[in-house]
């Protein structure tokens, strides 16, 4: 029996550990492998497709309904902030990296934690040599740095549950649908591994982006790939305010946003994925990180955004001065936009008004963008208060 067990371990390492091409999604690692003999599948590895012959899986997975009835369940406020491996959909079962199991009980209206020490053994049986598409847990995300409002850097953090090295392609989006909309998507914590800094090789495929980043090692423990460092020649600073058009609002804080044109002039000019950005400021003591913020990416030629923090330096509100029903499905409204700049310098304020099937009848300011569901204004505001009026119609 020991020789058989060793044989299975060797096969697992051959199939899982030495994969050549690896496709990493935001929720899975996917890769092809030739399989010529029966193998034992690790807990988190699934067969999603095979070609070239007959195959089947001998599966002794546990009866989770029965297990839940027998174990001690401890109610928790939420899922833990750690990588979670999806185990079962009926009932919903996750296993945390710490080894604890979690299930959602509708009758108990919440999440419950429990311990289970049983083993799952699944064997992939093959009748001949076949090509198998495997999947396991995986994750990647883009991390940017922005220094002194001039230097934009990008790296990729990635982690795989079953593949440690390979020629990696990153696929935007998820491979599988979420098992339940209310289940939170927990990300991996990763380390950084320095690799050659090159721009990503990007191609469009079914409205998703494919990034070829080359050979990567250390993915099972967490790895990183340096992508680029660019000197930004021009940025735009704006204070954003968003309002619904159908009602008067009180004053609200603005969101400070940095816009960067994604073009060669700024050392860019290729698709940039969404991610997080760590912003640094120069001080007498050197570069100091001031926080991690949201980075909204986009294609070549578009603007990407660094969304920092809300501020009371610039505030705004809208007042619905007049509203009347002009048909069974449309209203006409006169709206006054009031902006307050408490800074000592002029600022640019982006005002976003959203609604349904919007038409502009008259406006004091020229809109930057007009769409069916929103109107966007970029307004230069001196210190003090400024207002302008818009008359528009919309559906309800």
Number of helices: 2
Tell me the fraction of residues in β-strands, as a range. over 45%
Mean pLDDT: 84
Number of strands: 29
Looking at the structure, what is the overall shape?
A: globular
Radius of gyration, CA atoms, in whole angstroms: 27 Å
Helix share, percent? under 10%
Residue stretches low in confidence (pLDDT < 50, at least 5 long) are: 1-18, 179-199, 202-206
Largest sheet: 14 strands, mixed
State the end-to-end distance. Answer: 72 Å
Instruction: Assign the structural class, choosing from mainly alpha, mainly beta, alpha/beta, alpha+beta, or little secondary structure.
Output: mainly beta
What does this entry look like structurally?
With 396 residues, this protein is mostly beta strands. It is 6% helix and 57% strand. The strands form four sheets. Strands 13, 14, 18, 19, 20, 21, 22, 23, 24, 25, 26, 27, 28 and 29 form a 14-stranded mixed β-sheet that branches. It has a seven-stranded mixed β-sheet with strand order 4-12-2-1-15-17-16, with helices on one face. It is globular and about 75 Å long. The N and C termini lie far apart (72 Å). Residues 1-18, 179-199 and 202-206 have low confidence and may be disordered.
Helices and strands, with pairings:
Elements: H1 2-17, E1 21-24, E2 29-35, E3 39-41, E4 46-51, E5 55-59, H2 64-70, E6 74-76, E7 84-89, E8 92-96, E9 101-105, E10 110-114, E11 122-126, E12 130-136, E13 138-147, E14 151-160, E15 165-171, E16 201-205, E17 208-217, E18 223-231, E19 235-244, E20 252-261, E21 275-283, E22 286-296, E23 303-325, E24 330-341, E25 347-354, E26 356-363, E27 369-370, E28 374-381, E29 384-395
Parallel strand pairs: 1-15, 13-21, 19-25
Antiparallel strand pairs: 1-2, 2-12, 3-11, 4-12, 5-11, 6-10, 7-8, 8-9, 9-10, 13-14, 14-18, 15-17, 16-17, 19-20, 20-23, 21-22, 22-23, 23-24, 24-29, 25-28, 26-29, 27-28
